[in-house]
């Protein structure tokens, strides 16, 4: 046989074996192949010129988020004053004391509710930017990291707000007392100054908001669902893929030492976990089949595993959020092994 033919034969054999090895590698690494992975700089991402307008608009909202959380955390309620007023209905001094205690709290609750409306508009702007053609969700998140970071900050804020709200039953008790008193005074033709601040329509909307166990999450899921409904030319996947991509990126960052060592603060690790859980919950509310279905683009088993590898104190609340604030966990289509991981 001609040496050239031998070389050609050996070269072709090498190519065939190399292709086979490539396929084997693809099988071995299919999880990484299927799920997007890149470093999303939650600490230092700065807006490019293309991102600047939307970033400024969203930043104007987010810069108030810490004061909103502080206001909620400091909420003490007027339980004692309300109880005394109810137990002594003929004591006008106690009635007045309860009313004067509740009114400033209602004004504060109006501010918190008003922030949810601002957050709604900010999220809509981010969704418009992160889903528009011609880029894929992965390309958007990788190219527009400052907007991706703001989206993450909205999710982070949402989980923190809802965690705090769940621990403050006084909010609904105070607001119920306020509404009962307003109705009674309206029957007696009494005009109250506070109705200029919180009229009947505003009180109805606030009542619906605070009746939710997780009001900010409800705001986000409704906004995202409405965004999908109103943008009929935009496929649903453009929106849900932004969520699943963000979840996958957070998971890979958390389980990859080469990424976690780039975090300057341990708080960023906690932030990343919270964002991952936030996008999973949002995806589960927005996608018709949810996040736990086998067809889901989120590696739920991997995400839960990553959480369970962290110190228990850091993740107990997040695992509870997956258990109690998702929509499809208990569907028949949810694999049993996923359900058992969250028991």
From TrEMBL:
<keyword id="KW-1133">Transmembrane helix</keyword>
<dbReference type="Pfam" id="PF07159">
    <property type="entry name" value="CYRIA-B_Rac1-bd"/>
</dbReference>
<feature type="domain" description="CYRIA/CYRIB Rac1 binding">
    <location>
        <begin position="38"/>
        <end position="339"/>
    </location>
</feature>
<dbReference type="InterPro" id="IPR009828">
    <property type="entry name" value="CYRIA/CYRIB_Rac1-bd"/>
</dbReference>
<dbReference type="InterPro" id="IPR039789">
    <property type="entry name" value="CYRI"/>
</dbReference>
<dbReference type="GO" id="GO:0030833">
    <property type="term" value="P:regulation of actin filament polymerization"/>
</dbReference>
<dbReference type="GO" id="GO:0031267">
    <property type="term" value="F:small GTPase binding"/>
</dbReference>
<keyword id="KW-0472">Membrane</keyword>
<keyword id="KW-0812">Transmembrane</keyword>
<comment type="similarity">
    <text>Belongs to the CYRI family.</text>
</comment>
<feature type="transmembrane region" description="Helical">
    <location>
        <begin position="6"/>
        <end position="25"/>
    </location>
</feature>
<dbReference type="GO" id="GO:0016020">
    <property type="term" value="C:membrane"/>
</dbReference>
<protein>
    <submittedName>
        <fullName>Family with sequence similarity 49 member A</fullName>
    </submittedName>
</protein>
<keyword id="KW-0449">Lipoprotein</keyword>
């Amino acid at each position: 046989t001609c040496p050239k033919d031998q070389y050609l034969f050996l070269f072709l054999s090498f190519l065939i074996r190399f292709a086979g090895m490539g396929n084997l590698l693809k099988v071995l690494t299919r999880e990484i192949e299927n799920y997007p992975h890149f470093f999303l700089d939650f600490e230092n991402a700065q807006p490019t010129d293309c991102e600047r307008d939307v970033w400024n608009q969203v930043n104007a909202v987010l810069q108030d988020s810490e004061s909103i959380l502080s206001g909620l955390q400091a909420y003490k309620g007027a339980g004692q004053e309300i109880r005394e007023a109810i137990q002594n209905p003929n004591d006008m001094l106690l009635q007045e004391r309860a009313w004067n205690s509740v009114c400033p709290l209602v004004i504060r609750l109006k501010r918190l509710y008003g922030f949810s409306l601002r957050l709604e508009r900010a999220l809509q702007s981010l969704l418009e930017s992160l889903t528009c053609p011609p880029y894929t969700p992965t390309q958007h998140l990788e190219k527009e990291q400052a907007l991706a970071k703001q989206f993450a900050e909205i999710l982070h804020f949402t989980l923190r707000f809802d965690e705090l709200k769940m621990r403050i039953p006084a909010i609904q008790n105070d607001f119920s007392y306020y509404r009962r008193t307003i109705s009674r005074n309206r029957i007696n033709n009494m005009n109250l100054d506070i109705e200029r601040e919180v009229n009947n329509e505003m009180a109805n909307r606030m009542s619906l908001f605070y009746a939710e166990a997780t009001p900010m999450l409800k705001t986000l899921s409704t906004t995202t669902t409405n965004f999908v409904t109103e943008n009929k030319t935009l496929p649903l996947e453009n929106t849900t893929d932004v969520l699943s991509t963000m979840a996958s990126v957070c998971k890979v960052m958390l389980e990859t030492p080469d990424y976690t060592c780039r975090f300057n603060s341990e708080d960023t690790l906690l932030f990343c976990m919270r964002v991952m859980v936030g996008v999973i919950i949002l995806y589960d509310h927005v996608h018709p089949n949810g996040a736990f279905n086998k067809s889901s683009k989120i590696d739920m088993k991997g995400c839960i595993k990553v959480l369970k590898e962290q110190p228990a104190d850091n993740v107990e609340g997040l695992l509870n959020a997956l258990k109690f604030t998702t929509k499809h966990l208990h569907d028949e289509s949810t694999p049993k092994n996923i359900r058992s991981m969250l028991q």
